[in-house]
Amino acid sequence: MALPTPSDGTLPAEARGRGRRRRLAWTPSQSQALRACFERNPYPGIATRERLAQAIGAPEPRVQIWFQNERSRQLRQHRRESRPWPGRRGPQEGRRKRTSVTPSQTALLLRAFEKDRFPGIATREGLARETGLPESRIHVWFQNRRARHPAPGGRAPAHAGGPCNS
DNA sequence: AGACTAACGTAATCAATGT
DNA sequence: ACATTGATTACGTTAGTCT
Hints:
By secondary structure, this protein is an all-alpha fold. Helix content is 50%, strand content 0%. It has helices spanning 28-40, 46-56, 60-80, 103-115, 121-131, 135-148. The chain binds a DNA duplex through residues 13-14, 18, 20-26, 43, 46, 62, 64-66, 68-69, 71-73, 75-76, 95-101, 118, 121, 137, 139-141, 143-148, 157-161.
């Protein structure tokens, strides 16, 4: 446990006040719609996700996460039963259009990144408000930033697979 | 206590955009 | 061509909810 670690912003996140987004509970009809759509295409593009999100009254990013988790479940189950996973059927649906981040937005995000590489939902929402970018894009921005600019001193990767510090 | 699963993490990769 | 960087994927982890 230790981890009295200091004040620099490069804390492993769980050590500091990292709040997650509040977990949402899908209603039965929402789950039904999600599963139906998944059955038609487990790899929906942005247009499909947005249409579905609209139809069930849920934010598109939550729909996207649901598809990611559902694919994990299906892939695991198919593997467990030695059944082949029918990968992508049909043509690749279009991705979300690339978000252009202006230099001033980048500067703002950069400053936040230096303070905290693992911002919780409250911080991300704040940054979204300040930059005018969707929170989901902020989230991805931080993921990419962490991957491409590792913390100086080779800081341990938060949790996953981290060496147990005695 | 354990199952289930949304939220979230990394690593690798695809792909748009500018030079 | 190539560098940069946003978007998506597979897969593993964390944590909230329910039984």
